[in-house]
Fold this protein.
Amino acid sequence: MELAEPLRLEVVNTVKMLAVDGVEKANSGHPGMPMGCAAIAVEIFTRHLRYVPTEPGWEGRDRFVLSAGHGSMLLYGMLHLAGYDLPISELQKFRQLGSKTPGHPEVHLTAGVETTTGPLGQGIANAVGMAIGAKMKGAQFPALFGGERAPRIFGICSDGDLMEGVSHEASSLAGHLGLDNLVFFYDDNHISIDGETELALSDDAQKRFEAYGWFVQRIDGHDPAQIRKAIDAAVAEDKRPSLIAARTHIGDGSPNKHDSEKAHGSPLGKDEVAATKKNLNWPQEPTFLVPDAVRKVFADRAAEVKPSQVAWNDALAKLDAATAATWKTFSERKLPSDLVSQLFSAAKELAGKPDATRSLAGKVEQVVAKACPWLAGGSADLNPSTNTFILGSPAIARGEFAGRNIHYGVREHGMLSVNNGLALSGFTPFGSGFLIFSDYCRPPIRLAALSHIQNIFVFTHDSIFLGEDGPTHQPVEQIAALRLIPNLRVVRPADAYECAAAWAYAMQREHAPTAIILTRQKLAPIHATQPEAKTLLAGAYRLVDPKDAKLVIIATGSEVHVAVAAAQALAAAGKPARVISAPCLEALEDLGTAAYDAVLPDDGLPRVSIEAGRTSPWKAVVGHKGLAIGVDTFGASAPDKDLAVHYGLDVASVTKKIQAWLG
């Protein structure tokens, strides 16, 4: 769609003033970025982006990602104008309780918002995941996502996005893979909160992204002809992702806050709003004005895109029966009704001898991958250690996207941020690495939980018992820290059956992420016979349950077999103990009070917890007078058996501690 200049300018000014009015009414927000990028957003939405506002989930759509999420009023204004379910009343409730226009965009709240952004760098990394997902779907379903129907991902990022390390990780991967379906504008406005970006930034983004393997252009971000030419060139590029470095001016149109950090994170103010409207020849009243001619522009654009959706639906209807069935399975992500029984059958074959849970869970994952073709992911250069590579499927590469494995390289933060985008494009992704490096991954883990995204994090080498690599690699506080993230569930299995339950549980959580925590060292089996799947899927259960129990021992992962052996010694001494295996105590809490009390009733029995990590969080479970056995210092470099004795986590030491505590 080509707009005559007076009309184009009216559309751009509408976008600017919706942002200004929204921020002013809220008395909070960032008006400057939307004012500076309005011309860019208008060109994207009216000329290139394929979307159907009445069907925001249309699979064949392009996607727009506002990585610079602080400029959220730009996105909300565009979505309103485009015809999404975001009425003007919601723009008037910007940043207010219960609105669909929170301070930073949230994917599960607002139609048309493709991902949750705000923490800088995350949006562009998510967009890389979306671009990978589009390529993978194009390889598997070329009639729907190939050729002219190949979806593109457009976006806008800021100098803050490009300063954050995660953008480097994700952009490097995007260049390596040649994601030519990714087009990003860099809002190069030279302003940050502190002032001029030159206070802290002097690198050349163009050279940097060229080194990553991107196609880079520099333009005036307010010149419509340059914007159009740059987008056209980016869309025509068929080998590289594109970065369009657009020199813009924050607060464009504001007489006194143009190019000022004062337009970044604060309202313009009543007087400056009036001055800005006067400068733009915009009516002082009413606020939130949308001229009829502007509405018609977007109605015409929706009509212009509609045939693309009709053609896509026709292509879907013409798929052969086998491909149509495969697409239905993939798109619905409906788990096989017998998945749990498949996983427990696999576990039964593995349960007879000691093994590391990383190995056991890796073998269980192969069954999941075979049953669920939408499962895809990889490791941060640790496949030999995490055992998550999907067998029988290649890894994706430049020009080759038919596989389900992704080599992320040593990019933990980027890996899980990319995976959030992959999840939003229709896959159930997994990313694996050492548990200690979950510290590098916390932002995307938190955002997956906040966004209600199904994402599976597989973390191995879960305690001091990884041994000789020493305290730099030995996690102590990481499990407890992950458990604090709302909507995330952390599962630490102890044997093959619990590994099967962990994967089944993670796959069942369609709108939430799960972390599976696994050992490097081999563990003895804890089940002599196959347990009921329902029992293990509850998250915690009675593993040893004498009728005359004098105490309760609660353990997870590698400490469960220690708890069982200690209970045997205590029973011989006349102090029988109930042993609770709690791979995910929070999952049991989710089932409600009755389910929790059936496993851990408040019956007055003294409680002990055993976990090779920080003990203080366990006080909430064992009580102030309870005994929490764990590790409250950093580890040491030594063989795992020596460390067990040194930190008092071997059977003899644990038994002695409990006996002394009982008196």
Observations:
- The domain at 5-309 is CATH 3.40.50.970 (Rossmann fold).
- Residues 162 and 168 are 7 Å apart (CA to CA).
